[in-house]
Fold:
Amino acid sequence: MIQGRVVYVLWRREIIKYFRARSRIAGAIGMPAFMLIFQGMGFRRVEFPGLPESIGYFQYLVPGIIGMTLLFTAAYAGMSVIMDKQFGFLKEVMVTPASRVSIVLGMISGSATTSLIQALIIMMMSVLLGFRLPFLPAILSSVVIMVLISMIFINIGLILSSVLKDFHGFSTVINFIAFPLFLLSGALFPVSNLPAPIKFLSYFDPLTYGVDALRGVLIGHCEFSIVLDVCILLTLSVLMVCASAYFFRRAEIV
Amino acid sequence: MSAIIVKELTKKFGEFTAVDSVSFSVEPGELFGLLGPNGAGKTTILNMLTTLLLPTAGGAEITGYDLRRNPGEVRNNIGIIFQDPSLDIGLTGRENLEFHAMMYSIGSDERKKRIREVLDVVGLVDKADILVENYSGGMKRRLEIARGLIHYPKVLFLDEPTLGLDAQTRRSIWDHIRNLNKNYGTSVILTTHYMEEADYLCDRIAIIDHGKIIALDTPSGLKNCLRGDCVSLTIEGRVELIAAALGEKEWVREIVPNGKTLDVILLDYGKNIPSIFQTAGNLGIGISSINFSKPSLEDVFIRLTGSIIREQEGSRQSARRDRMRRRMLR
Structure:
């Protein structure tokens, strides 16, 4: 049973706290911004095999960095659940009659919104650095894809947070998961340049399809097809939402 | 109908039995205390009764709803104030209350009304719009109490409500608890390891040690289970003479001579002390000083468990004192 009011209040709490923690915004944007500036500007003139000349490396990199922003901010959403656990606030949430599904959906929608804000900030920044934006319909479809990407990784973070108890454990595990996903996804270079076994692994990385779909709509270049990408992303995000609802139902809070 | 009926509630963590077949019931509007040392199992009982932990065996009904079969309805009818803080310090006091009210699906107009009302009850109206991270410990506790009241729970659980607060704040929190119990008719169950708190607040007290209830009665009933009041006399003259004379009175329970002093355990010292002086006067024996004490819950506790209550802060302090003393002796 989904209670709209519960989802809304959890979402609103996340948004209020996001805009109060300005340092958190700056910190989360710093890393992708540096990548954009140094990696993007530094390799600006390099020609990659498998990359059409008309596109150029910077155009190619921007969707990848947007994907990276989504991956890291979304995966770290579980951290706020760990914080709530440690500050005792999660107990207060779980002792209310709100349904567990609504609680999970509330957490997801809040984090999805904040990850989306971060990704859009990075997108605007890249425009300042010379990224050529497509027309509005393409931008709007990229937003839909961004939401799907963040859904998948938020739920990875949420599931982890329902099992783990402390900050250190969480950030170690999430880095261990997020970094390979990032590097495998082709966010920085075309996957086709990787040796066959590693390339094979990249097909199991959800972000591969996410970044590919973003490139498809933002710069009109993709390796698979946008339809396939979106189907995979959609299926995965639905599955992941169900999985974290399941994990939260059986989580012991105290 | 009882507010709470607990039947043979048991919780095991692996081999360790934290709560061992505990049974009791609480009437509507009652202020019920679970008194025991740290680690006696009080919080575990509360966590089970508030659906946060599943019992290993046994069960409970809260306002008529079974814990296992109907946890949603149980949650709807209870409020809990946890031992550890459970506020979102990144939100203001009002936002914390709004959040809670919305989780209980209270509509917007009703919500505003109730928030005003509970803020007033705990005296935080003028502090409602500052961030909770700037609150003092006592203010946080009061906000948590306000939050626990906002959905008008029939049963309110308080886990160590005044732990770590100064005496003045403790008093004011006690008054809040009493008032809400009186004004809303809320049944209150509180755990504590402070004797005065249980004595001052509770209609009935269950003393818990090692996961079991070892006594359950009103505070005065518990104290009456001791033999009576104790009067210590310092005697000038022949101690055995007056001891023999007092031993014949029917209100004297026990006489313990101890050198020049005499401990007399008796019923109703207020009425019988004049009679002690009279007896001494008749024998020509002087009493140079007199000391008397009513039994406290602490005495009851020591008597029942054979140990003083294990209070962490106290022991840490006394350990520090001991260390200081040793250093000074060196």
